[in-house]
Design goal:
The longest helix has 15 residues. The chain has 192 residues and is an alpha+beta fold. It is elongated. The protein has eight helices and nine strands. The chain binds zinc ion (2 copies). The site of one zinc ion (ZN) has 7 residues, from helix 8.
């Protein structure tokens, strides 16, 4: 098929703009193969491909970076954020943390607050069965504190924060005020 000069001019302009063969074919009412032929003839490189989305689900993508090791722990073989070292990966152009997705896999719902590993490999473990969000962690640590007799019965902290909403426990089962802790951390960050 012989294209008119006007069509050819427009085709050249579209190629220069970086249009795909499909877009050119649709606009000019020609075949995609014709668009491809003129692309080659006019010295343009291969047509830009529309970016493909990973066919993997979020969970399957996570599994690609998760390596089960001894003790039921799971090691992260994926990326770490350069600034904080947080274990992360990208799925459909969105960054996810390894632990928030581990929590989702383990519990079937998104986490609330920060996700930590509550096993003895707290530094690096991303096992779905070992991670907890803020409410889960608080409950788990409080149960430990009760068992070992370190549970706090104070109704408020030394600065007057209500214990029923602000009490937290560290890994050893020692009680502390979550509000005071957060305020101290924020003040430290502001001063830095
Ligand atoms: Zn673990
Ligand atoms: Zn407090």
């Amino acid at each position: 098929m012989q294209l008119t000069t006007a069509t050819l001019d427009r085709l050249a302009a579209l190629l220069a703009e970086g249009a795909t063969n499909k877009a050119i074919a649709a606009e000019l009412g020609i075949g995609k193969d014709t668009a491809a032929r003129y692309r080659a003839r006019l010295g343009y490189g291969p047509a830009p491909q529309p970016r493909r989305r990973s066919p993997l689900t979020l969970e399957r993508k996570w599994e690609q970076y998760a390596r089960p090791v001894e003790g039921g722990h799971v090691e992260w073989t994926g990326r770490h954020r350069a600034d904080t070292g947080t274990m992360v990966f990208t799925h459909h152009a969105r960054e996810h943390t390894a632990r928030s997705v581990a929590f989702l896999i383990g519990k079937g719902r998104p986490p609330r607050g920060q996700v930590t590993a509550e096993c003895d490999a707290a530094e690096w473990c991303v096992a779905p069965a070992h991670v907890e969000d803020t409410p889960g962690r608080t409950k788990l640590r409080e149960a430990l504190a009760i068992v070992q007799g370190t549970a706090s019965t104070l109704t408020e902290c030394t600065r007057g924060h209500d214990a029923t909403t602000h009490r937290r426990y560290d890994r050893a089962g020692r009680a502390y005020c979550g509000t005071c802790h957060a305020e101290t951390a924020a003040a430290r960050k502001a001063a830095a």
